[in-house]
């Protein structure tokens, strides 16, 4: 049978990885897919650089739209990034009856509903395994491997740049700016690194996983997003003393009243496997009612790890090419007419526990005035750590770990504690998850 013909738009880091993996593993891929997969045309802004990568193995075309218009091409790979041109290209490819593979999480988190509806109507597939946690087959696991379960929650380290920054700050005592530069040099960071450090990239990926896990549309605009820019080395150290690590987690959890969708620095017990995921590695924990806890770990970024996922999607599409849309794996796991309208919860209704650090006057009665406020708001304390003050010092740090509560209650208590004359600086609060 004739090989399936593929065109690639955006031959950058990931695109070059796709070219190399497809070339290197050609024969094995053909045996798995039942048909050869041939990259016949590529496009990138700089044509000479494109030629330097593919040589005479694929045609370099000057206009991306020539790939979409080519009737011989069955699958278009979109790897240009961003949400403007990428959206146009993906929708045009779908309209032209092409299957699409993309690694673009920003595009799908924001415009996924429109794109998946267009693909379903046209009877084509959109593969996006590479968009979440790069090479880790988490979309496959959620959409296929775990379909027997009611998913309860997902918590993941899904941004390599920020995990690398936190690891390096903790292990080597380096400052934030130095480590960010290193992450950029190593190619982990997004073109605009604020997407990484402000938690936006993680929220894009979390939004996609949440939709698949709970059968709701993608709703990036409702995600609560905090990055790591406000995190201080002091809190990383105190957390360690209490047996916790601080990780930037994406958490989505089913509650009776709705779905939590949040990205923020989080204290995680140091004994959990996910607390020990270091550097640019990614890890996702999924809790299903039947399977219990499962953990997926691996490289969430980089040319070939990400290409591994892109090529897996090409194989899937090749295998499903002739199946009609109603009998394919649905884009968001649930059938498009079976998506639920379960609300995404406002932050005040999120349930979590807290680490608090208060700079307080070192005098009698301070601790009791604080615990009284916590008790008034029905907040119960899990542990307290008071740093011994040095002789002559008139202030000290008070660290409190709480049990689970509603975020809204904690906000009200924080406002009251902050107003105490004995509380001397802004109170630091970081959410804590036991993940068990
Ligand atoms: N680099 C990584 O580790 C990962 C990247 N992704 C996603 O994969 C996508 C691609 O990322 P990278 O390969 O890292 O980016 P990149 O910047 O290395 O590559 C993008 C390529 O698209 C080309 N391009 C941009 N605008 C174009 C236009 N108007 N016409 C033609 N070509 C154009 C650029 O010249 C460049 O070669 C993005 O959506 C990114 O978020 C996803 C997972 C991991
Ligand atoms: N910038 C991202 C790259 C992959 O998605 C990250 O750091 O994880
Ligand atoms: Na993946």
Automatic annotation (TrEMBL):
Keywords: Amino-acid biosynthesis, Methionine biosynthesis, NADP, Oxidoreductase, Threonine biosynthesis. Transmembrane segments: none annotated. InterPro entries: ACT-like_dom_sf, ACT_dom, Asp/hSer_DH_NAD-bd, HDH, HDH_cat, HDH_CS, NAD(P)-bd_dom_sf. PROSITE patterns: ACT (PS51671), HOMOSER_DHGENASE (PS01042). Its EC number is 1.1.1.3. Residues 355-431 form the ACT domain. Pathway: Amino-acid biosynthesis; L-methionine biosynthesis via de novo pathway; L-homoserine from L-aspartate: step 3/3; Amino-acid biosynthesis; L-threonine biosynthesis; L-threonine from L-aspartate: step 3/5. It comes from the Bacteria. Belongs to the homoserine dehydrogenase family. This is Homoserine dehydrogenase.
């Amino acid at each position: 049978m004739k090989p399936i013909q593929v065109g690639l738009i955006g031959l950058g880091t990931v695109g070059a990885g796709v070219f190399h993996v497809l070339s290197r593993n050609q024969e094995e891929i053909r045996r798995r897919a039942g048909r050869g997969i041939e990259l016949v045309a590529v496009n990138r802004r700089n044509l000479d650089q494109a030629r330097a990568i593919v040589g005479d193995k694929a045609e370099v075309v000057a206009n991306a739209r020539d790939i979409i218009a080519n009737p011989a091409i069955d699958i278009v790979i979109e790897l240009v990034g961003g949400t403007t041109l990428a959206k146009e290209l993906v929708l045009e490819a779908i309209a032209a009856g092409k299957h699409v593979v993309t690694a673009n999480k920003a595009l799908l988190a924001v415009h996924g509903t429109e794109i998946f509806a267009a693909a379903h109507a046209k009877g084509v597939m959109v593969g996006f395994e590479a968009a979440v946690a790069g090479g880790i087959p988490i979309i496959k696991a959620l959409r296929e491997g775990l379909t027997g379960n009611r998913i309860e929650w997902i918590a993941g380290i899904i941004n390599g740049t920020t995990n690398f920054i936190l690891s390096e700050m903790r292990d080597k005592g380096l400052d934030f700016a130095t480590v960010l530069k290193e992450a950029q040099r190593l190619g982990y960071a997004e073109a605009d690194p604020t997407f990484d450090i402000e938690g936006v990239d993680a929220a894009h990926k979390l939004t996609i996983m949440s939709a698949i896990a709970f059968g709701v549309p993608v709703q990036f605009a409702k995600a609560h997003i905090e990055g790591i820019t406000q995190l201080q080395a002091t809190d990383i150290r105190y957390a360690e003393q209490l047996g916790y690590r601080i990780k930037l987690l994406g958490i989505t959890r089913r509650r009776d009243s709705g779905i939590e969708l949040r990205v923020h620095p989080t204290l995680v017990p140091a004994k959990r496997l996910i607390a020990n995921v270091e550097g640019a590695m990614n890890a996702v924990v999924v809790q299903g009612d039947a399977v219990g806890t499962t953990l997926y770990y691996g490289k969430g970024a980089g040319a070939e790890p990400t290409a591994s996922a892109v090529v897996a999607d090409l194989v899937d599409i090749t295998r499903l090419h002739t199946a009609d849309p109603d009998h394919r794996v649905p884009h968001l796991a649930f059938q498009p007419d079976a998506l639920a309208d379960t609300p995404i919860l406002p932050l005040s209704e999120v349930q979590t526990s807290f680490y608090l650090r208060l700079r307080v006057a070192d005098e009698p009665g301070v601790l009791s005035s604080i615990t009284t406020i916590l008790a008034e708001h029905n907040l119960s304390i899990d542990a307290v750590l008071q740093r011994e003050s040095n002789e002559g010092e008139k202030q000290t740090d008070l660290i409190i770990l709480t049990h689970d509560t509603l975020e809204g209650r904690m906000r009200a208590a924080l406002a009251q504690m902050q107003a105490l004359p004995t509380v001397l600086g802004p109170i630091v609060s970081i959410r804590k998850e036991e993940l068990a």
